[in-house]
Description:
Blueprint: E1 12-13, E2 16-24, E3 28-34, E4 40-46, H1 48-51, H2 54-59
Amino acid sequence: MPQPLQADDPAAIGPYRLIGRLGRGGMGQVFLGESGAGRRVAVKLVRPEIANDPGFRQRF
């Protein structure tokens, strides 16, 4: 069951409107998102210090 978004969470990531929080881990936060057509997806927001690492980006 998703948790509510927090005040500092983004409203959208890419084309997906965020509707809740699914979890948090070592790499970042996972949100429940929804496409414009209503399809629900998990959207991972990776921590900036990891996302800026070219080696991580290539592996991910």
